[in-house]
Amino acid sequence: MGRAEDGKDLAGRYEAVRAVALADGQRAGLGAALLMSKGMAAWMRGWRACTPAPPGPVASAGPPAEVVGVLAIMALACAQDR
């Protein structure tokens, strides 16, 4: 994940915690408690540690079925010519 994306994600999460805290400070949760007791940097580290990394690119198990089919047809056509 790039730094810009990471910042947007953290900004959105911060605004969610802030909105809950402003609406009902008694039920703001652990995120707000961490933010208020340890500060913004600790809150950001906490979110990064608790959220899973985005999935990476999925590796292909092999060529697509269409490619295999075309190659098989070509091989059979060559074999019949002999």
Question: Topology of this structure?
Answer:
Layout: H1 3-23, H2 29-38, H3 40-50, H4 65-81
Walkthrough of the structure:
- It is a single chain.
- With 82 residues, this protein is mainly alpha-helical.
- The chain has a domain at 1-53.
- The protein has helices at residues 3-23, 29-38, 40-50, 65-81.
- The termini are far apart.
- The model has no long low-confidence stretch (mean pLDDT 77).
Mean pLDDT: 77
Low-pLDDT windows of residues? none
**Structural class by sheet pairing and helices:** mainly alpha
Output the helix-strand order.
Answer: HHHH
Question: DSSP helix count?
Answer: 4
Return Rg in Å: 26 Å
Distance between the termini: 54 Å
Task: Please tell me what the overall shape is.
Answer: rod-shaped
* Major sheet size, sense and barrel closure: none
Sheet-strand content, in percent, reads under 5%
Number of strands: 0
Helix content: over 70%
